[in-house]
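Sequence in, structure out.
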Amino acid sequence: MKFRPCIDIHKGKVKQIVGSSLKSDFDNPVTNFETDLSPAHFARMYKNDGLFGGHVIMLGEGNQNAAIEALKEFPNGLQIGGGISVHNAKFFLDQGASHVIVTSCIFKEGRIYWENLEELVETIGKKRIVLDLSCVRIKDEYVIATDRWQRLTSVIISSETLQTLSSYCDEFLIHAAHVEGKRLGIDETLVGLLGNYSPIPVTYAGGIRSIEDLEAIKSLGKNRVDATIGSALDIFGGSLSYKLVVEWHKKQNQ
């Protein structure tokens, strides 16, 4: 199991926000943290700590230059998401991203656009693609949500869904949107589902607030589910020590 770091960029600045508060214009989201430190600063820190496979997320327009600076600071060490499409995926890979993270160009109007997914695979290859299957819990099911988690699709996260989509990508990234950014603890049922059924690497995000939560993900996910942490970390204004998390990560991957 690995800790995957993150760099969320909103209006050119590194922020930690409650993702479900993002509306169509990206203005005035609920913000847990904001800093004047550049995205490249965080990328350099992750590089120095040997943390590969983290993600840079561009939240809205006007973030491309800041994101590229981060990618160039840690070539092939970071993935990038936010408005990725068939038309710009290769560009971001050329800027130093190891993978592109895609959602909206694949999940639109409540369904999967298989033709777009197949074209993306043909263009850059499945080994450079991460599918964002971020979801909302509706009763006993996990429904993939798009458009800043404001719109539900008809696609349910299940063993069949994970198996089918794994043919088109190298990894999954899954935010539990209903707990993301709230520091209220993880969705244990979702982590268990991913540990049982994901045939490829998968990173879980949402509600992680302690080393105990990481241990729970390790156990429930059968040591097969990685984790990313945002606003709970002290580098983003929280109380969980980034240094302690890095030490924990290194112990798991000796």
